[in-house]
Amino acid sequence: MIDKDKIYIFDTTLRDGAQRADISFSVNDKLQMIERFDDIGIDYIEVGFPASNPKEMELFEKLKGRKFEYSKIIAFGMTRYKDIKVENDNNIKQLIQSGADSVCIVGKSSSLHAEKVIETTLENNLSMIFDSIEYLKKYFPEVIFDAEHFFDGFKENPQYALETLKAALEAGADYLCLCDTNGGMLPSDVIEIIDKVNRGVKATLGVHFHNDSGCAVANTVIAVKKGIKMVHGTINGYGERCGNADLCQIIPNLEIKLKKNCLKEGSLKHLTNLSRFVSETANQIANPSQPFVGRNAFTHKGGMHVSGVSKLSKAFEHVDPETVGNTREILISELSGKKSIILKAKEFGINLEDDLKKVSEILNRIQNLEHKGYQFEAADGSFELLVKEVTGVKKKFFKLESFRVLNEKKEDGSMMSEATVKVLIDENRIIETAEGNGPVNALDRALRKAIESCYPALSKITLTDFKVRVLNEKKGTGAVVRVLIESSDGEKSWGTIGVSENIIEASWQALEDSIIFGLMHVEKNK
Are residues 220 and 74 in the same domain? Predict the structure, then answer.
């Protein structure tokens, strides 16, 4: 029974999303994502094409007999082959044996594709659709028909495109899903065509948009406003070519702005976490500017914006970030105003509301440093240390006297670096030398050897990422470089920065800040 107040979400991340050029999911990856989709309340999970490869067959074997609390497992397949009876078609047999809760069957809705791509008659293509759905309805309570290339097919031959829908409906299809397989439709096309479909066919409709024109999300939302009940898409918009409609944008737009019921109650707040889980599982770098769930989606950098957000968040945010499980971030840069610095300082326990002199000093130092090439958006650790230095609460764990780095190329072609660090801790002068697979690694090891006996908490601090960017390439080897280091103590992560014409000096600046920040954090939480 279809709920008239609900929009049914059909996720195809595991099938269509996996067709992205640089994504490959293992069987275990898919099983983990299915559980997460079920937890958040995705109605239909299209897990794959059982006839396509052994990995898909293994997945369906593992899913056989499993019933999920919320989600239905969907097997994907094609209509029968043009010259084979439906009961003899191996693809149809595989669907029936898959153990899936329901099936989604794709058929041609374009006369061009029927005649020129699969090379059959228009009449036989209609029979292929009818026979396949009628046969599958004997084995499954629900059959979803994907009308492939429907929108393009409707523009070519509207009468025939509607005939394919009528054939599927007459055969017993529960949903007729209109597909923009090439991804070229504009919102105006979608409105016009869906209006004509609604007049020509009385059925429960769905949509499946690709993003080749950058309109997949907008097209999906407009389709819902035109009465569509089922939307297909993928988490993070993964998919072939330019991707599919992004469910991480569609779902919050429908729930928050159109007041539609999509996920199970209370689950929208887990959407950001799901997005990041899927990107990690897919081994993809998450898009920081992705609407709703990206790390920058509610990040404010300009001073005027920060001031406004601090007074009334909705003045500069279209939704509350917590609604989708995201967080508001205040970035510090040369564009920051005094309010940005006050708010950011408050995050780490320093109240500057009544000390505008220090706020001005911090702001001036930031602007001067960014003029030299520093950038504090990804260097929260260095910014915090700067504030604590100006306010007199930064702790000096050690003082650098000097360091030296030697690089050696060996006869076998390998490279080795050796670093010597001389530091002062209180009145003690300590000299340590260490080898590493590069100059920064050697410096890190030498510094740790020098101070670890005084600060055993150092063992918890690890460097997790190291990035170098050349700021003025035209100067060649004399260019200024920016080094960003990310570190973690297992609980908290932080970024630090160094800038210099000498890459070793820039690396030391970022490394020193990383160690000092980490020790201060560990000490604070003792």
Answer: yes
Query: Do residues 317 and 298 lie in contact, with contact meaning Cβ atoms separated by under 8 Å?
Result: yes
- The answer to whether the beta carbons of residues 102 and 143 sit under 8 Å apart is yes
For 39-81, write each residue's pLDDT tens digit: 999 999 999 988 777 888 899 999 988 889 999 999 999 999 9
Q: Find the distance separating the first CA and the last CA of the chain, reported in whole Å.
A: 57
Question: Is 382 within the bounds of a domain?
Answer: no
**Is 113 contained in some domain?**
yes
Q: What are the pLDDT digits (tens) for 315-324?
A: 666 788 889 9
Neighbouring CB atoms inside 10 A of 509's CB total 19
The answer to whether 187 and 160 are in contact (CB under 8 A) is no
- The CB density around residue 245, as the number of other CB atoms within 10 Å, is 29
Average pLDDT over residues 186-208: 96
Q: Report yes or no: 140 and 171 within 8 Å, Cβ to Cβ.
A: no
Number of domains composing the chain? 3
pLDDT classification of 445: cutoffs 50, 70, 90: very high
482 sits in which H/E element: strand 481-488
